[in-house]
Amino acid sequence: MEVYIIVIAFFVGITGAQIVSGGQLEVNTCDRIQRHGYPCENHTVTTPDGYILTLFRLPHGCLEMSDKGEPRPAVLIMHCLLCSSDFFVLNGPNDGLPFMLADAGYDVWLGNARGNIYSQRHVNLSSLSEEFWDFSLDQIGLIDVPTKIDYILKTTSESKLHYIGFSQGTTVFMMLLSSQPSYGEKIKTAHLLGPGVYFCHLRSPPALLIQKFLGRPSGLANIIGTLPSQGFTGILRLLGSNVCKFPLFTELCIEILNLFSGWDSPYLNRTLLTDLLTSTPADGSNQQINQYMQFITKCEFKRYDYGAEGNLRKYGDSKPPIYDLKNIHLGEPIEFYFAVNDFFATPEDIHSLFDEIGMQGNWNRVKLKKYNHFDLVLSINVKTCINNCIVDKLLKYEGRPFNGTLCKCFRNKAFEEG
Ligand SMILES: *[C@@H]1O[C@H](CO)[C@@H](O)[C@H](O)[C@H]1NC(C)=O
Ligand SMILES: *[C@@H]1O[C@H](CO)[C@@H](O)[C@H](O)[C@H]1NC(C)=O
Ligand SMILES: *[C@@H]1O[C@H](CO)[C@@H](O)[C@H](O)[C@H]1NC(C)=O
Ligand SMILES: *[C@@H]1O[C@H](CO)[C@@H](O)[C@H](O)[C@H]1NC(C)=O
Fold this sequence. Notes:
GO biological process, one term: lipid catabolic process
Oligomer: single chain
Strand content: 5-15%
CATH architecture: 3-Layer(aba) Sandwich
Radius of gyration: 21 Å
Helix content: 40-55%
Active site: 167 (nucleophile), 342 (charge relay system), 373 (charge relay system)
Signal peptide: 1-17
Number of strands: 9
Bound molecules: 2-acetamido-2-deoxy-beta-D-glucopyranose
Keywords: Hydrolase, Lipid degradation, Lipid metabolism, Signal
Family: Belongs to the AB hydrolase superfamily. Lipase family.
Shape: globular
Largest sheet: 9 strands, mixed
């Protein structure tokens, strides 16, 4: 016991020293990509309300020395809550979706939502101010995602792109398309992993606990809502990556992750654990967390709830407006990927989504019974189970040679028990 305390105290000390010295990330997404011999560019785009967002781009695959002139369809990939573009490149070129897509002939763009480690600048505001942090999922969905889509289309001279989202990346996509349906015309195909719209059956114990405190508008939720979060998540990253790299702690760390994302999954790629914890949690506003907690409490997909008074000021109504999913219209069915042991995007809640927009989607439920939330991106079998299938569907859409037998990991009937 004492040994643990000493070890932990030691790392807290190191952490403190690193925070004082700036707490900067040592490697960014481009470093992680280039380390494998792939090209990478970083781009910034400014939103109408002044946030400066970073996009990382894999313009082509590693084997091609340069663009040979054939069109490279654009893909935008959006990350989870408190995550960044790093999340998708952790498993390297053989298994990571961005690399696989680049090698298959796509122009791959990795987004970063306002407030995460790569998007903490603003034309006027300091990232230490409360005004900077006064945003929720709504602004990410209604401002950041369309700003990025338009920037990519302008830069590539394309008129449409493919969208891939994981977790929060799916929530903000559904917000955008239900509020600004015309964006459906700019989407070729959409692939939503661990889709988060309804959270009535969420099973993650830590989230259920936090929800008790932050699931309703309150003084506490208001104060926490706009508190800058950089320092705290920086400490978690340093602690996590420094402690969990020791074999003694590795299994404990994985159990803690599984407590969030789905109990007892054996599938996480353990090799990337340290790098995952070096890059995640990657910041975000506390209002994003509050809003998810509100989704759990009220079982509705709606705008941020500021409380009756605040809502009147913001929305002209004492209740926040609901996102109307009936507005969503895409040329192709949305591909939903989900798993039975996912503590966030539970099959019950996906079923509610299906009841509402069934015809608008293809419902891909992973067969493996212990597959959880993070497994949809970071498991050892993510390539054969998920990524090969996504790449193949994109190839098919583009009229390129595709395989047609690579989507084998899913049940025939998504919603029947057994
Ligand atoms: C983007 O690239 C520029 C120039 O190479 C570099 O100075 C900057 O730090 C990079 N930004 C990020 C977020 O990686
Ligand atoms: C930034 O500040 C300038 C000067 O006060 C103002 O004109 C501009 O609208 C502000 N921009 C944003 C995005 O807030
Ligand atoms: C697991 O992650 C490591 C480290 O990024 C990577 O080299 C390896 O290919 C990954 N393995 C699988 C099966 O995803
Ligand atoms: C499709 O993929 C499978 C598994 O990778 C492979 O065995 C098969 O040869 C491929 N078929 C075609 C037509 O490319």
